[in-house]
Amino acid sequence: MKKKQTSLEGQVAVVSGGAHGIGLGIVERLLQLGAKVVASDIDRDGLAVSRERLAKSFGTSIAVQAADLSKERGAQALHRAVAKRFGPAQILVNCAGGGVIRPFLEHTPETLKATIDRNLWTVIWCSRVFLPDMIGAKYGRIVNIGADSVRNGLPAHAGYNAAKGGMHGLTTGLAREFALNGITVNTVAPCAVNTEVWAKVKKSNPRLAQAFVDVIPMGRVGEIEEVASMVGYLALPEAAFVTGQVISVNGGSAML
C-alpha cells in the first residue's frame, strides 16, 4: 500500500475569491498544507490586506492578483501572473461568487446577470485557462465552491441556485471528461457559513437568516474552517479516487 500523501509541498494553488470569507480561509488552509498560493479577487484592497497578514506567517508562499474573473481576459491575466510567479498550477479552487439573494421576481436583469457572472462564468473561464497545464502534467485538482441550497431549496435562492447548479453540472462534466488525465474535479457545497456576509444577513433580515438555520439539523451555521478543511483534503494527492462529487458541508441540511 502506498504511503498517503498528506502535504502540498512543491505544489502551486490558485484560489479565486480569496480576499475574504471562505476563500480566504481556503487560502490559509492550503498554505498550512505547504502549497504556494495565489489568491485572486476583484477586491484589490482586500487582497492587499489579506496578503500582508498571511505573509507574516507564510512569507513569499502567498501572492495575490486582482482580476475580474467573470471575463475571459481576467482569467487569462491571472494565469499569466501565476505562471510568472510560481510556475504552472496543480490546484484550482473556484471560490469567487456572491449572489444577489432575493425572491425571483424581484430580480432585475442586472442582478440576475451579476449572479450568473460571479458564480458560474468565473468557474468556466478559470477552468478553461488552468486545465491545459494540468493536462500537460497529467495531474490536477479542481475544487469548486458550490451551494447546499441547490439541494435543499432555500427561500429567495432561485437565481443563485441557477448559477451554482450550473457549477455543479460543470463539475460532473469536467470530472468525466478529464478522468484519464490524472485530474479530479469536485464541488464542496456549504450551507450558511459564519462570514461577514452572514453577519450582514442576520442584521438586515433576521427572519430570512433564521429560515436558513432552521433547515440545518445541527441548529447552527458552518464555520469557515470546516469548509476549508474539506477543500484541503480534496486538493491532496491522496484524494486521487474522489472525482465528480458534490460534497455537502452542511450540518445535515441535505442528506444523500
UniProtKB/TrEMBL annotation:
<dbReference type="GO" id="GO:0004316">
    <property type="term" value="F:3-oxoacyl-[acyl-carrier-protein] reductase (NADPH) activity"/>
</dbReference>
<protein>
    <submittedName>
        <fullName>2,3-dihydroxy-2,3-dihydro-p-cumate dehydrogenase(CmtB)</fullName>
        <ecNumber>1.1.1.100</ecNumber>
    </submittedName>
</protein>
<keyword id="KW-0560">Oxidoreductase</keyword>
<dbReference type="InterPro" id="IPR036291">
    <property type="entry name" value="NAD(P)-bd_dom_sf"/>
</dbReference>
<dbReference type="InterPro" id="IPR002347">
    <property type="entry name" value="SDR_fam"/>
</dbReference>
<comment type="similarity">
    <text>Belongs to the short-chain dehydrogenases/reductases (SDR) family.</text>
</comment>
<dbReference type="Pfam" id="PF13561">
    <property type="entry name" value="adh_short_C2"/>
</dbReference>
<dbReference type="InterPro" id="IPR020904">
    <property type="entry name" value="Sc_DH/Rdtase_CS"/>
</dbReference>
